TrEMBL record:
Source organism (scientific name): Oikopleura dioica (Tunicate)
Keywords linked to the UniProt accession: Glycoprotein, Golgi apparatus, Membrane, Signal-anchor, Transferase, Transmembrane, Transmembrane helix
Single GO MF annotation: galactosylceramide sulfotransferase activity
Homology family: Belongs to the galactose-3-O-sulfotransferase family.
Cellular compartments annotated: Golgi apparatus membrane
UniProt-listed InterPro entries: Gal-3-0_sulfotransfrase, P-loop_NTPase
Topology in the lipid bilayer: Single-pass type II membrane protein
Designated name of the protein: Sulfotransferase
Gene Ontology CC annotations of this record: Golgi membrane
Amino acid sequence: MKNLNKALFFGLFALIVVVEIFVHLHDQQTISKLRTSLQEFRQLAEDTPNSAAHKISEFSNQKIHQVFEFFNSDADDSQQQTDVDYEVPMELLASETQFLETRQCESEKNVFFLKTSKTGSQTLMAIMQRFGIQNNLTFFLGESMNGAMSNLQMPITYERDCWIGKNIPEEKFQISTQHLKYNKEVIDNVMEPGTKFFSIIRDPTTNFVSSYRYYQYLLGRLWSQFGLREIGETKGASSELLYKEMEHFLEDEKRAWRYLKNVSPASFARIGTLRPQLIFFGSFTDVNGKEWMSYDRDIPEEVLQAWFKKLDADFEFVMIMEYYDLGLALLVNEFCWSIEDVAYLKVNAQAHSGLELSKKAVRNLEKINYPDYALYRYFNETFWEKVDSIGRAKVEAIAELIGTKSAEIAQRCIQDEYLNNNGTQKIKPRLKEGVYEDAECGRFLMHGPSMTKVTQRYMIDHFGKKYKSCSRSATPTTWSENMEKNKESLRYKYKFLSGHGGRFT
């Protein structure tokens, strides 16, 4: 009995100490793993007879060994994977499937999705658009080619920004899927009462790298100061050059701020690199009446925490890209959506270059973009609290079902050339022969600007003669001309995608 007590005490104490260490290091992914270990240990301690003291000691040593391996690893823990294989027992999957099929709840139809950038949000937008079309919902959309609103660095306002149906203030929208900068007052006024809010963020280091690589052609006002490119070399830079530029930019924090000072806050060269996630969450007014923007250089920690708490109260939850399917599982559970509602085909995934930022570059990035890192830590913690409140095994079972259903639909609908591509080739997904009249396959494939144009045309037709453009242009815009020129084909696509006949075009 004495040996058992010593083993229990040693194991439990070691795990608690390790959890405390990682709390101070702010490594939320490892914290969540260690919490699971702690729960496993407590359960083992409760269920184990006295003769199993050796087994408990062995269990403790194994967990501690895993921690030492983590400390000694050279791997970059910011390069987290989004594809996770959950070891879920078959009986739990069967039980969860039956529960989802028989539960008594009403599917949430009024949803505001705050679309951030380079966070897996394009795939989420496709899921939301598909859900909106299937359920004949009204979309909150900008009068622009990509449907975005508040294109500058400022939160969306009535005075400055434009959306379809703005001239009909009594009309309320049911679903929002496009980029905008958050302003609770405006969103509360335009969306249906009781609308549920959610968003998605990712590790700020990988977000910065992804943003720089993807939007390089929009960052000219920044990288033109580095002197590392030839004149006129604005697109198609190699991964080696892009990382060389990022390293140069992040080599010296003070110099980086001088570069940023030479760029307007409204330029994408700043929007896409300086706190590129917090900027989507609008602004915050503190107790003294001062309004803080994401790009303000020195935001006090207490202001950030108050800002995050306010957002936490507004949003049902914020997904974490590194745990994508778990986040979708929260959607299924919290919004009473089906597994089919959130099945998805990955889009806009970048091929891995094999290159990484140096530790010095990351340290300086953490100083410059510290509000994004604080945002990530805060909502990473609330994400796992939400998961644990539902039950981790339950959420993982739903995530497993989502992955299985996504693979099933992809195998039935999408050409093998795309599905078998390992990321080294840029191949567009296409439908298989024989499924062009299958609306589910069409919705599964269609995404991005093409789907946005379909929903924009639908909303113009929805408002009918009451609709008037809010564009300030004296002549028709490229967008309005596009809507008029292609109205019949866009109407046909909406009819097909909503399951009312036709075929994919």
